[in-house]
User: Fold this.
Amino acid sequence: MNELRFGILGCGNISKTHAVAVTNAKGAILSAVCDIVESKAGDLGAKYGVTFFSDCEAFFKEVDVVLVCLPSGMHAEYAVRAADQGKHVLTEKPLDITFASGIRMVEQCQSAGVTLGCISQHRFARDVQALKAAAESGELGKLIEGDAYIKWYRSQGYYDSAGWRGTYEMDGGGCLMNQGVHYIDMIQWIMGGVASVQARARTAMHSIEVEDQAMAIVEYNNGALGVIQGSTATYPGLSERLEVHGTMGSVVVEGDRAKIWTVKPTDQHEAFGPMVSLGQPRELTDDPTLKDWDELHRLQIENFAQSVLNSQAPFITGRQALEPLKVILAIYESVRRGGSKVTLDEIASGRDGA
Ligand SMILES: NC(=O)c1ccc[n+]([C@@H]2O[C@H](COP(=O)([O-])OP(=O)(O)OC[C@H]3O[C@@H](n4cnc5c(N)ncnc54)[C@H](O)[C@@H]3O)[C@@H](O)[C@H]2O)c1
Assistant:
């Protein structure tokens, strides 16, 4: 077999990106779509000339891989149902919204013998991959700080556009669980994992249950410290940033492009280093991974297809996607405890109340 039949479950906003991405990914073919609202499945199916369903059990029969594009709090339930039918699962982020659901997905997919992956498409951007490689190779020296800033803006209209948005039950949280998860995933991945967090959060301006402003101090497994700031209340929305500092240098990635990449020459003895400011990208060459909005999804979907076809683990496994989920749940638990320190081990041992 050199091609897998992919099906999209949930034909809302992000399904269009998946449809384009699958169509252009090697080893993948779009074969069916499904939505509980039949007209949404029908519209997407007609656009791509594929069969559409409103009943997911019938849909599962037509595919090898299920792309879960449902509201976040439904990911586990449908991933497990797909796995029970022997289908591989690539779910949208976050993996799910509780640790118990996330671990259930991982374990059920493992026991069903199917592959589980979770979308974190920005990890496929060229400069993000280069930063990860530099962090691992020691190019930046010993890592001492890792910060993620996700100061975005979402209107009240966005939250009102679907009943699940901004709810604890189905969104699981706000600017961190929904929007921030991408950059929380990347900073914890680059820094080698989070040990504990201390956080404050609040709902600053929207009429929603969940947070639209959050700030956390993070301690990484290697002792490095950092900051995570998430918001959907920062008008007009700033480009998201990762800032990684080691004893030998700093990298700042803004909007998936490296804006600062400064490593100390080994023979430098002066007391003060050069000051740098955010400016032009490090390289002015086009980054082919950022050529269009769907390209990062295409890269991840292609990686998933090739991994299944070659019986290898995908670049981002379901188990790895538990890590950003634990960080976010630990931040929420710290907020509930008035800002005191919460370890990720507490979340993993089920003390987050989930
Ligand atoms: N990776 C990214 O950049 C990115 C961007 C946007 C959204 N997402 C994620 O994608 C997921 C979906 O988000 P969205 O914005 O597309 O939501 P959406 O509300 O636009 O779409 C969800 C769709 O699921 C359908 N649905 C609900 N219950 C269903 C069921 N039981 N069976 C079949 N269909 C059902 C709805 O009718 C709707 O069409 C979320 O988890 C979100 O976090 C990821």
